[in-house]
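Researcher: We're teaching a course module on how sequence relates to structure. For the next exercise, students receive a sequence and then see the predicted structure as tokens, so they can try to spot secondary structure elements on their own. Here is the exercise chain.
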Amino acid sequence: MTSYVLVDDSQGAQLGDGSKTSPAVLEQIASSIMIQVNRDFAAYWGIAQGGVTVRVASSASDVQPSESVVLLQALLTDAPNDIAYHDKTSSGAAAIVVGVGLCQTLTSAGNSLSCAISHEILESEGDRPCNRWVDDGNGKERALEVCDPVEGDTYEINGVSVSNFVTPNYFDPGAPAAYDQMQTLSAPFQVKNGYQVLRLVGGTESQIEGEIKLSKAGKAHPSSRTSRRGAKIAA
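Model: And here is the predicted structure for the students to work with:
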């Protein structure tokens, strides 16, 4: 079982619409994302029903050693122009940081706190080592990021907006639909309302394809793909 715990260190930071986080709203977000992972995401990605929990910490000390932290900050102290990123710790646990101050709303569609958290938790579950690439059959490898290609599309669970995500068939050339949860894509490796990280097969140069909305920050874990992604190239 994987457990994610939301730790609010945003210190009253305002979102774009003037709202602020609260324990009640974070509980609502955690509940909806836990449903999304165990119901929608699990149906495609082979996660056991009930295999993922998402909860809200009562304080910074309310985190168990086995839990993966989702840290909410006013702005990302190590990447102040970025909204969110996911990586892994030296022990292999997921590590997620979200900049509350760059989100526009708490739970609405689009650039909301709930969508940012959903995005990063799903991508952590889809690629826990944060270093997987898929050969697209045309000389390029695509990063196994499950929300980036469709991150501009969202849907609601109990009144909370969560991120669309792609299915395993999205990364399989010639595979049949469905390619994403909301069934907006018509082919593998298609990008719609999002972006994708790619490189030449066997190469080390990463490129950005598509429209960047949630940019990723370079991080420190040496084996993760995130640690090697520094430049952000507008398409």
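Model: If you want an answer key for the exercise: The two ends are 38 Å apart (CA to CA). The chain has two helices and eleven strands.
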